[in-house]
Amino acid sequence: MIEKQRINVAKKPWSGYVALGSNLETATQTSLDMVNGALGLFAEAGLRVRARSHWYRAPAFPAGAGPDYVNGVVEIETTQAAAVVLAALHNIEDHLGRTRPKRWASRVIDLDLLAIEAVVSPDLAEFYYWKNLSLSAQMEAAPKQLILPHPRLQDRAFVLQPLAEIAPHWRHPVLGQTATTLLAALPAKARAEIQPI
User: Fold this and answer.
1) 131: which strand partners?
2) Residue pLDDT, tens place only, 105-124
3) Within a domain: residue 7?
4) Could you tell me the residue range of the domain that residue 118 belongs to?
């Protein structure tokens, strides 16, 4: 059953998953430095890291959109409201120099809140709207609010590989499948492209 709860006001500690990625280097830092640097700022933002995947190398999406990414996933615990956590992740991105010239542009850092326990937010209809959006529409449109779980996490090997590593039994609150099952359902080629660093 889908858990329906308000996540604007946190009542107790909750856990969730955050994806980290980088495919742009700076004059002094590699993409690996960038994701490690971002992770180092989580505690200051009130996010306790409970588990961390290995780092993986993955091709940019869509194909040919830029250099390979360094990707990983962490499990966090916090008492903060989801909106506060999202703002904190955006602040970390800004601090590390992220710019947003266009949708899915290469970036020095990308932090995505993937899921909070069994929460579906804001509702099932909104989740399915964004999940079923065509690729061309996805490249133009971005939601104005937080959608949980992330509407495309089940389609992305670069998210599911590290998520399945640290939370193989995490169950998608809408689709009902575990991270391991979702990963196994992806094409073998997509899974083979995700290489541990």
Assistant:
1) none
2) 578 899 999 999 999 999 99
3) no
4) 14-196
